[in-house]
Amino acid sequence: MILPKTIDFPPLLKEFIIKETGNINPKLNIKINFLDNKPYRFAKDNEQANVSLSMGLGKPISPSLYEGLNI
Questions:
Q1: CA atoms of 27 and 63, how far apart (whole Å)
Q2: d(C-alpha 38, C-alpha 60), whole Å
Q3: Could you tell me whether strands 6-8 and 27-29 are parallel, antiparallel, or unpaired per DSSP bridges?
């Protein structure tokens, strides 16, 4: 697995950073503790990651709680 080096900030924090810094596309650096000999690594500068990581709620256990919300 090839992991990306950065991901998007959570939406509310992203809006705050945009207003404070003017950077329209802030990214959060990923930190992973590589203790074991795992089959994953970070993508190099000109390499494409084959795993997609994103901020989100995932699949809710009870979708009825989120009816009518645009998330």
A1: 29
A2: 29
A3: antiparallel
Give residue for tokens 């329209």: 24
Instruction: Please name the amino acid found at residue 10.
Output: P
- Using left for φ > 0, alpha for ψ between -120 and 50, and beta otherwise, residue 68 falls in left
Q: How many domains does the chain have?
A: 1
Domain containing 38 equals 2-66
Domain-embedded: residue 6: yes
Could you report the per-residue pLDDT of 10-61, keeping only the tens digit for each?
A: 888 999 999 999 999 999 998 877 777 778 888 998 899 998 887 776 777 7
